[in-house]
From TrEMBL:
Signal peptide: none annotated. The lineage of its organism: Bacteria, Pseudomonadati, Bacteroidota, Chitinophagia, Chitinophagales. Residues 366-484 form the MurNAc-LAA domain. Its EC number is 3.5.1.28. GO terms for cellular component: outer membrane-bounded periplasmic space. This is N-acetylmuramoyl-L-alanine amidase.
């Protein structure tokens, strides 16, 4: 905080110095008294206000990190790191701030006491009231002087003599010109900016200008003899009433000179007008921003590799949408291949789901993406118009509509970063979209994922873009730059949890990382969840080399995981339906494996309960794949064979070789579908014969039918060839009403049909009535980024008051600097959400930083193109533990 306050005061001093220098050269001792009075007052106001303004009229780009860093320090821009000391001894930074504030308060108290003293004088002497002023006749030696509308007169000066009349006119001029308000203003400024030498000089000059103006009114015709007689009539007093206007305040020589010099100095207008370019130049000094060239047109190269799976929508027999002489499958493949071609320039490793005109169903694509250990997944598609929206055009970025989506925030940030970059060069929807149909690849994804609709193939302008190689390249670059922006913001390293002064390493000199006694690479420790870390120890110098040899030359970082985290290192292995150890699983020869299926998160827990919380690897051997399916289930489970509730006996009679598929439902999904009968679990069995039969639905008369996204009648449903049905989805109660409003109150049947080639039409047609356009993007860059109310200085004051800096000291943290990087979303109204520590150096630092941020006030939201926007912000707080 002291650094930020010092930089602000330095800016104020610099601006006031430049403005006073111009006054001294061009305006001082010139008879522009009224202009000079206004100039000096405005110089003070501009000096104080200009450094507080955040203007970004111009942008300059630089390759120098030092230049960028210096700009951020001088102009207070970018991510602020707040240092909080955990030592209970003397905090010199706080003492300095307290001393500055105490000095200001003392000066303010002195000013108030002098004003009170003047007011008491008025009560002690007779007052004679006139139209413009009150006349107080006193016997004090410091009179005559004026303050606000009061003239304090000395009774030994005669009002009948000419000099007495001149003195009275002099004081009346001060009152009419309201000079006392100028003095009060300057005195208040000096209480808070007492350390600024130029404000002292400006105050002195302003007081002299007051006298120059009053002298001209009191002594007409520039009569120097009359001026001298007026001064000699009185004597100097013993007490100086600073807020008051004393006739004897200033240098007699300068006042006498001002009465005798020419009223028309050379270049009088030029001298006054030249202040305009000076002020313009000063404003421009605070109206620019400096960015790295990566923020302009250069390629933003990531510091660390980022793995991205890119899916080219459709393919093979599934042509997707078609119009204007092209197929969707060809356009998406061209974009995906161009992304792959350019990706190495960004240090992004792109893996394509297909690199030729082949077909993969959505499950195959999402399963493939989930097994690539990727950081993100994007699916490229092209939109198509329907009869109800014939003129729509432009790009759209879609998210999964699942309310319990694990990566909901990451998906929004990823989608926002891509949308923000695409919008620079192409027409695009202003907000992120959600869709409940046609995005199965997103719903099944176990990594952050979005679907990009690259324009409308039915729109001539969009179609022309998809045929233009230069536009295809620009689309690919925009997507990659969006990915890079997301990756840069999401990046965090385990090294952030290590006190900054303990290890002094570079990119070429890395420490040795040891996790639970086992040496690990930096890539491996990135996979560790910081919440699973129990403690971090650091070995340096000879101690590290004795234990770990030459590899420990740059120090050793010992990471100890919590007990639960140690177990979390291994997933659950299931071979041919049987849970086995890792050792047993890897005994299987690769040539004997029929298939491998990886389950994560909810899908793993749904199937295997708590055992599957760390993921499940299902291995099916070739021998087991040929065997009929045998189920071992409890006696009270509900059997449903070919859609009909059956008994265990009927199941036992079933020839297992005739089973086409088995679906197991447990807990809530089972009860939701079958009511109380399903409370012990449900086994749905579809025989091979039944699987070939058309789907027959028995439903109430007043149910709502939706065929391929279009609301239809029962008659249209009856006319539908049931063999062409791809899938049926039934919605009841609240889900049906939430999606279709009052029309869905009696239930909804959503039917997806196949096209003539037998492929699903769900990805070919734009979904209607299910898109939500209110998912606003979350920005990672903006013209004006969010800030704490009152700026960085207020943020520092808030932390100093609210943050418990002794948390680490109480937990016996070793000396060092412990930095916590906080991530949080500031929405359009300034509310904070998703507050978390991207790293936690331990000893309670992360939890304390999160607590203080959550309990704080609303922030000022980010602004982009004149509108407030949601913003994913980062803020560093550093705890310093001294020896």
């Amino acid at each position: 905080m002291l650094q930020q306050l010092s930089i602000y005061l330095l800016k104020v001093t610099s601006i006031s110095g430049l403005l006073f220098l111009y006054y001294h050269i061009a305006l001082r001792n010139k008879r522009f008294h009224y202009y000079n009075r206004f100039y000096l007052l405005m110089a003070v106001a501009i000096s104080i206000v200009l450094p507080l303004l955040k203007l970004e009229w111009f942008t300059f780009f630089s390759d120098s990190d030092q230049t960028i860093h210096l700009y951020k320090i001088i102009y207070g821009s970018g991510e602020h790191e707040v240092m909080v000391t955990g030592k209970t001894g003397i905090n010199w930074e706080q003492l300095t701030i307290y001393a500055m504030v105490a000095t200001g308060l003392v000066l303010l108290a002195v000013l108030c006491s002098r004003i009170i003293k003047i007011k008491l004088l008025k009560k002690n002497y007779p007052v004679q009231q006139f139209t413009d002023f009150d006349f107080i006749n006193t016997d004090i030696s410091s009179a005559p002087f004026s303050f606000l509308k009061d003239i304090f007169w000395r009774n030994d000066i005669s009002l009948e003599e000419e000099t007495g009349k001149q003195i009275l006119q002099h004081e009346i001029t001060h009152i009419r010109q309201k000079h006392s308000w100028d003095k009060l203003f300057m005195q208040l400024i000096m209480c808070f900016y007492w350390m600024n030498p130029f404000f002292h000089l400006i105050k002195k000059e302003l007081y002299l200008i007051h006298e120059f103006i009053a002298d001209e009114e009191a002594v007409k015709h520039a009569d120097a003899d009359a001026f001298a007689k007026m001064l000699l009539t009185a004597q100097f007093g013993k007490f100086n009433f600073l807020p008051a206007q004393s006739i004897f305040y200033s240098s007699i020589k300068r006042r006498l000179t001002m009465l005798t010099i020419s009223k028309k100095p050379q270049f009088s207008y030029a001298r006054r007008l030249m202040i305009l370019p000076l002020i313009t130049a000063l404003v421009c000094l605070f109206a620019f921003t400096v960015k790295t060239r990566n923020a302009g047109n250069a390629i933003p190269v990531l510091a660390k590799p980022f793995v991205l799976v890119v899916d080219a929508g459709h393919g093979g027999a599934d042509k997707g949408a078609s119009a204007n002489g092209m197929y969707e499958k060809d356009a998406t493949l061209k974009i995906a291949q161009k992304i792959k071609e350019l990706s190495s320039q960004y240090n992004i490793d792109v893996i394509l789901t297909r690199n030729s005109d082949v077909y993969m169903n959505p499950r195959e694509k999402s399963d493939f993406a989930n097994t690539q250990n990727a950081n993100a997944f994007i699916s490229i598609h092209v939109n198509t118009n329907d009869k109800e929206h014939p003129k729509e055009s432009g790009f759209e970025v879609l998210l999964s509509s699942k309310s319990d989506e694990k990566f909901a925030t990451q998906n929004k940030v990823l989608g926002s970063a891509i949308l923000q970059n695409i919008s620079r060069d192409f027409t695009a929807a202003p907000s992120l979209q959600t869709r409940s149909t046609g995005i199965w690849v997103l719903k099944n994804s176990n990594i952050p994922s979005v679907l990009i609709e690259c324009g409308y193939i039915t729109n001539k302008e969009d179609a022309a873009n998809l045929k233009d190689d230069a536009k295809i390249e620009l689309i690919a670059k925009n997507i990659l730059e969006g990915i890079a922006a997301y990756a840069n913001h999401a990046a965090t390293s385990i090294r952030d949890t290590i006190p900054a002064n303990i290890l002094n390493v570079t990119a070429d000199k890395q420490p040795l990382y040891v996790v639970n006694g086992k040496p690990s690479s930096e890539a491996e420790i990135k996979l560790i969840n910081e919440a699973d870390i129990e403690r971090i120890d650091v070995l340096k110098d000879s101690a590290s080399r004795v234990i770990y040899g030459p590899k420990a030359e740059n120090g050793v970082v010992l990471i100890t995981l919590k007990t639960s985290a140690k177990k979390a290192q291994e997933p659950l292995y299931v071979v041919d339906g049987k849970i086995v150890s890792k050792e047993e699983a890897i005994k299987n020869e690769a040539t004997n494996i029929e298939s491998v299926n990886v389950l994560k998160d909810k899908s793993a827990i749904d199937k295997y309960g708590d055992k599957g919380k760390n993921g499940v690897i299902e291995i099916t051997s070739k021998n087991a794949a040929k065997e009929p399916i045998v189920l071992k289930v409890p006696d009270n489970v509900l059997y449903v064979i070919d859609g009909k509730v059956s008994s265990k006996e009927e199941y036992n009679k079933l020839d297992k070789k005739t089973i086409e598929s088995v679906n197991v439902l447990k807990d809530k999904p089972a009860i939701d579908k079958y009511g109380d009968k399903g409370k012990h679990g449900v086994i749905e069995i579809t025989s091979k014969n039944a699987a070939k039969e058309p789907i027959v639905l028995k439903v109430p008369v007043d149910v709502l039918y939706v065929i391929d996204g279009k609301i239809s009648s029962k008659e249209e449903y009856n006319k539908l060839d049931k063999k062409t049905i791809e899938s049926v989805n039934v919605l009841k109660d609240k889900p049906a009403i939430d999606k279709y409003g009052d029309k869905g109150k009696n239930g909804v049947i959503e039917i997806k049909s196949k096209d003539q080639t037998g492929n699903s039409t769900s990805n070919n047609n734009k979904s209607i009535d299910v898109k939500d356009s209110n998912t606003k993007p979350i920005f990672t860059t903006a013209q004006i980024e969010p800030q704490f109310p009152g700026g960085a200085e207020a943020w520092g004051i808030y932390l100093a008051k609210q943050l418990d800096a002794s948390v680490l000291a109480k937990r016996k943290a070793p000396p060092g600097i412990y930095t916590v990087t906080l991530s949080f979303i500031v929405d359009e109204d300034g509310n904070l959400s998703d507050v978390k520590a991207l790293n936690d150096p331990g000893y309670g630092a992360g939890a304390e930083a999160v607590r203080v941020l959550k309990q704080g006030p609303k922030w000022l939201p980010a602004i982009e193109n004149g509108h407030t926007v949601a913003f994913l912000n980062k803020q560093k707080i550093a705890f310093k533990i001294s020896e």
